[in-house]
Amino acid sequence: xxxxxPHIGNAYIAIKAMLDPLGVDYVVPPKCNKRTLxxxxxxxxxxxxxxxxxxxxNMIEAVxxxxxxxxxxxxxxxxxxxxxxxxxxxxxxxxxxxxxxMLTGLSEHKLKGFLNLxxxxxxxxxxxxxxxxxxxxxxxxxxxxxxxxxxxxxxAFEIHKGTITPLYRKSLQAIDDASDYxxxxxxxxxxxxxxxxxxxxxxxxxxxxxxxxxxxxxxDPFANMxxxxxxxxxxxxxxxxxxxxxxxxxxxxxxxxxxxQWRDVHKAAMPYLKRDIGGDGWExxxxxxxxxxxYDGMVHLAPFxxxxxxxxxxxxxxxxxxxxxxxxxxxEQTSKAGMITRLEAFTDMIAxxxxxxxxx
Amino acid sequence: MSCKVGIPxxxxxxxxxxxxxxxxxxLGAEIIVSEDTNQKLILQGASLVVSDTCLPVxxxxxxxxSLSDKCDKILIPVVRSTSEKVxxxxxxxxxxxxxxxxxxxxxxxLEIEFDYSRGKRYLYRQIYSLGKHFTINPFKIKAAAExxxxxxxxxxxxxxxxxxxxxxxIDLLCKGKSIEIKxxxxxxxxxxxxxxxxxxxxxxxxxxxxxRLKAAGVNILTPEMAPExxxxxGNGHTRFAGLAKNYWESEEDVVGAGDWYTRIKVDGIxxxxxxxxGPDSMMMSLxxxxxxxxxxxxxxxxxxxxxAEAGVVTRIEAFLDMIYRAKRRNxxxx
Lengths: 360, 334
What we know:
The structure holds 2 protein chains of 2 kinds.
Chain A: E1 3-4, H1 11-19, H2 34-43, H3 50-64, E2 69-74, H4 84-94, E3 100-105, H5 106-121, H6 127-154, H7 164-177, H8 181-196, E4 207-213, H9 215-219, H10 227-233, E5 236-240, H11 244-254, H12 263-269, H13 281-291, E6 297-303, H14 307-315, E7 325-330, H15 336-355
Parallel strand pairs in A: 1-2, 2-3, 4-5, 4-6, 6-7
Helix pairs in contact in A: 1-6, 2-3, 6-7, 6-8, 6-11, 7-8, 12-13, 13-14
Chain B: E1 4-7, H1 13-26, E2 30-33, H2 39-48, H3 55-67, E3 73-83, E4 86-87, H4 90-93, H5 95-102, E5 109-115, H6 120-131, H7 138-161, H8 166-174, E6 190-194, H9 197-200, H10 203-206, H11 209-215, E7 219-221, H12 255-263, E8 268-274, H13 278-293, E9 298-303, H14 309-333
Parallel strand pairs in B: 1-2, 1-3, 3-5, 6-7, 6-8, 8-9
Antiparallel strand pairs in B: 3-4
Helix pairs in contact in B: 1-7, 1-8, 2-3, 12-13
């Protein structure tokens, strides 16, 4: 039994940290690349969204490396994500691969479901071991997000363009290599100091942009073509509504206790969208409403044909809170040059708006 | 003076219109249904929403727009779930808010949310809050709701027992038009069509698919003709028998129907879906795979506002020719 799991952003580092102490035989699929995408588009249904395609591409590449069990999530909901596994399984079978899906319903079983999944892949390891490795994985996830937040903040300020990104890449590797809490803490401190210590432009007042949208394309730099890095290069500080560690902590720990971590956002969205429409659509509308005044603009990322985000995008122009929004659809056809041009135009326009040049 | 309630002839209209009509008319409202879909209406609807919205929603917005000066209120129900933990597509859940956001000067919207997963009490409260717009007498609302439910059951029964399409059944129930019952010939082809009623039965959207097939002398089966309960062989169970766990509310029209067609061995299956339809993008692929493994010819038609009619006609002709030829060859071999 060799386990694999599809990528989402840098989550593989955290999942590795969970599986390593349990002695699981696993393969990490190669990071998303051109081949993943072309395999994925070749075998996926035509109109399906990019997260499905990339996940399938990961699975195919992992199966080629000898994986036969795939960890995946399901759920009940209106979004397609909860049903991916069924179609992906069929496609892999039709391709002649004999794979077994190991599933957990994140929306129903929450934390317990995920721990049970870990237990089943680890051949019934003792609970103490499972919980401790899970906790270490979460710690790594938090460290990853801390590094990312710092990098996205500092990139706008650096004098020598292109110093932060290599540092950030190195920090990911170092976090991956850290084997215990002590070394993890040291890595975070070391790279944190190094990144905050780069030479900065004095008295620079950057634009602030919030990145929102569907969770997969927001978290995955391959799917969104490094949108945050590109914005950083243009001298913009970015923040986002979704970080995997926060999402996991709040979604798995607080939600089962009946605490709605998005309450403010939902409340803000109420006048324009009265109910949860699945995916992250409700949150997107709410984020626009509550971020007005705190940010100069918003980049809305969505996979092409995404149902909730498409609806959110239709509704957003009607809010009375006025925040410039740039919608970027991600699919296999999106080109980086086109996206960069749009980002440049967008940042120019919000800079002009901020300076009062667009008074009419 | 009675209140004029507009109902857009799109999306859920095909599934629930007799029920809504019965309920509202019992409470003394006057029903106005928007005109048949036409190209102008589609283009108007499409111009109001972002371009990657699916065609049925664009059509829906066009209908809401066309109703806006003809009635006092528009009924836009939200059907979230009709069985436990099976939810509807995200687009359906946002319809009232979407209409409010994109249609300029929209008439006040009557909303009602059906959510089976939240229990009966929630449903009753929703029905009562809808009925309150017309009468303050709760008993009258209850009676109207019961009558509406009966009508809905009758509507279902007609489609399955008499093999009528939804549009024919609506004509029969609500307009009193009589339908000539056609004898199903044994010699012709039987083609099953998998697809949502709002794509299949909207003649403008499907480019008269049903009429064209009938004109070609083909017996057609549509999803609503599938019997609700399985027969002794377990056939005709539209609720995703065997193939897949029921995930989306309205996907029994696609996967359930596809399942039924492969079990009763039709001569061919046509899957019709709207471009950018989220659920269908995955479900149609399941039907296709199933048809493939059962060795039944399958054709997938994807429609959008730019689809050319001539292209659809050519593909239907080619598909039928192919099936006829294969059938003849098989008979010669025997």
